[in-house]
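Forgive a beginner's question, but would it be possible to get a protein, spelled out as residues, together with the matching structure tokens, please?
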Amino acid sequence: MIPNITRGSRMAGLMVYLASTDADKTKNAHSDPHLVAGDAAIMAWYDDGVLDHADSLAIAKHLDQPRKAYGIEIRQKDFRWDQATRRRVENGYKQADVWHCSLSLRAEEGALTDQQWGDIANDFVDAMGFTEASGKAQCRWAAINHGTSENGNHHIHIAVSLVREDGTKASTHGDYKRAQKTCRELEVKYGLEQLSTVHANRGYERAEKATAIREEREMHRASAARKVRASAGASVSEAEFVRRARDTGLLVRPRFAKNTTDVIVGYSVAERPTPGERPIWFGGGSLASDLTLGQLRQQWTDTPQEATEAAAEWNAAARNKRKVSRTGPENATPPAQAWVEYTRNATALANRLRTIPRDDHATWAKAARDVSGAFAAWSCRLEPTPGPLAATAAELSRTAQLRAPRQHGKPVALPSIAGTAMLFMAASSKSKTAAQTALMVQLINTAFAVYEMHAQSGRTREAQRIRSVVENRLAPFTATMPKAVPVGAERQPAAEAAVPRSVDIARRGMAPIRPGSVVPATPAPATPAKTYQPSRRDSASGLDR
């Protein structure tokens, strides 16, 4: 269940919107708007009948009565976007006595009854401190159900007046975190699908998706995130990252510290627009929580010389000038032996993950980030339009994004596959090789380890998503690859493609059958996740089979 909180000052406007069935005046088609819960007076006056315009105004008048009676003003800081500094700046204060929150289910969860929504709404406002359960005078409130959204999400809206019955102001300090915590508790209480408390992904605006569908293309946010992830994974320095990002076709601009042109504190990217259109910019943090400049810098060394080189590349990108360096690693051709070395590293990584506790979220996020970057890099190189590689990269990137990274410490040392993305970026886009197959097999094994970690941790939704992309997208792609050869062996004549055992397992929808790896019905904390390990017999004919 997902909460979405907004603040405003026009209770009548909000209630009229929630009760409206005019498709021209609402973002989603509303149907059968009716109350499912509210304060005692509201529920005494109204039943579950359909609300009309007059009803919505009467409810708004009731909710707003304490504020008007006591003449109380509730204000919050207002912000505006400053184009010159490209950041939000304070813009005085605005009226904010109306607290509005929607509670939404995933489309796959179906719909709840009015009784269920009513119970959830009452528990939610109690937990948020808006009722007498807080030990204070209650706030007036109402919860309205007006049908399913255009995306299939069943949801309700809760409107609260922040002026209590005795004229005091209700506190909203920490309401975003408290709402998330409350939703996790209500999911357990009412048997709803439990969303992850560990991972969090960036959303998108409704208009972005609508525009992409209308123009029959991928959302710019998704394509930019994949290109940034691929460029970061393939780079050994910040300057190289800037050059690689520009090579993918992205427009790149830095965000400088105040009054400087050499101290970069952030960045934004945009897909190159068609002539006559303006670019749509996305900050690194709005693409993914692990793609902020601060997060990316953790994988690069920091020296005065590299900082100077990076600043030069950032400035060139900001002015749309040519790249400063034309002899960087991105222009070199890696030796053939590099494929063998990184295949061994990927194999070692899959082995190492067997010993990592399932609750070591920082380490699992690091592993998922590296593997996601490799798939993203190969997608950028091989797929003219987003395909199975892009889908796999996007799915694994979800595990790479922690809700609160600072709470999880630092990841333990793992075998490095950072150069894997570099190899795929440098690979030919016209052919597939046995070396690529060998490396991809091990990357799939690592991705499958992430799947098992989620499954054994009780995060069914995340596990199912990874299994689905491997089973439905990646397995057919693997069948088109040349047959893999053992690490370090000479290339053999192409034969029928071998499907990795991890892919075969995903097809059957079960964990690998071996002692000690059965997914427990009740996850035990801090138990190392079990991952598939190819036996000598398995690896004789091609790494994994």
